[in-house]
Amino acid sequence: MVNLTLDDTVARTHAVLAADTGTEILALDEKSGNCFSFAGSGRLIWDCTKDPIRVRDICSLLRQQYQVDEATCAAETLAFINTLVAEKLLLVAPPKQKAE
Amino acid sequence: MLSPLSTSRYRAAGFTFDSEIAFSKLLVDPAPGHGAADILFRIGELPPTGEGLTMRLESFGFTALEGRRVVVSVSALAKPDTERHTVLIGGLNAIAYQRGLLSLHASAIDTGEACMAFCGNSGTGKSTLAAALAQAGYPLLCDDLVVVHPDAGGPVVWPAVMRPKLTRRSLDLLGGAVAELTPFAARDSKAVTQVGDMAGYAPRRLAGVYLLAWGEPASRRLSPLEAVTMLGRCLRKPDWLEPSGTATTIRQRWLELVSRIPFIAVRRPRGSAAFPALAQSLIEAWQDGSMVNR
Fold first, then answer.
1. Fewest CB within 10 A of the end CB: N or C in chain B?
2. Taking phi first (over 0 means left), then psi (-120 to 50 degrees means alpha), and beta for anything else, what does residue B239 get?
3. What number is the ipTM of this complex?
4. Neighboring chain A residues of B258 at a CB cutoff of 8 Å
């Protein structure tokens, strides 16, 4: 498990196939064969990781959409993104490529 | 044996194809002969193992190459009717894979402006259920193979083999309105039949997929995530997926299919007796604008 911080930058891996049902995103990792469904805040996180983005900026986007305090949003977003990284759906950008 | 004849043109599953093998009118429709065909079926020696998608049986075999050619090798032992059916369905199946199209082990019926497909393992009653629906006025579009084509308005299915192969037991169940067009084959104990009106050769929007299985009677709509996991159960010859060279495209199209249309799991008891009730239940559901009768 990677211990991400709010200043880490993440982005989707290219190997994951995805389709939009209108209410959720279906994702399929061809290498592992694992399937995923993202709805609600999970969908928002998936959508905004199309291009590299800092976890802190994801939290800002989430707080524009949901009524949640900063600490809770940060903790839950980091936990979710850690899971996506562990499942190899997201990559963490190398330190030298991190946004300032 | 399968004699090389002059090339004839046919159409099925959204393809036109020229063939040195004369396919019976009972199996596939002749097509107008203008322009280049999508596919060529020709008689010849099979290429070395590893090239294309190949099926080898005792008395014949074929290899699909580059999504455009099917080379068919036959021996003097080949029995034309059975082998031609296998060559046609298997050849189109392989070509569909090589073109990155979803190639489902399914039957399909025409509901008017759209169609429904019935997937399931061999023996789960795809053909018999589709035939029961055809008797009730929903023409059969495809038996055994359903090729799904992407389209701007959603996935579509073209008619393919519209005369189902049925067992004696299924024929007895369906009653006298079924015409037996061939004797029952020794290999699978099935006869080619005609049930109800023939559908016109035009694409239909695929509106839903039913997954048939044995069990206590029950129907439920699968979540899209559940449906995604059913790809291996729905593909015809799933072992061709990886060697087709188009596995990623096919998986992406499967994701798009399950994200757009409903998938319904249908369980019924073993035996043919449950078909009329199941067919009637589906008809009532469709007339109510739903997928399952509540």
1. C
2. alpha
3. 0.86
4. 19, 26
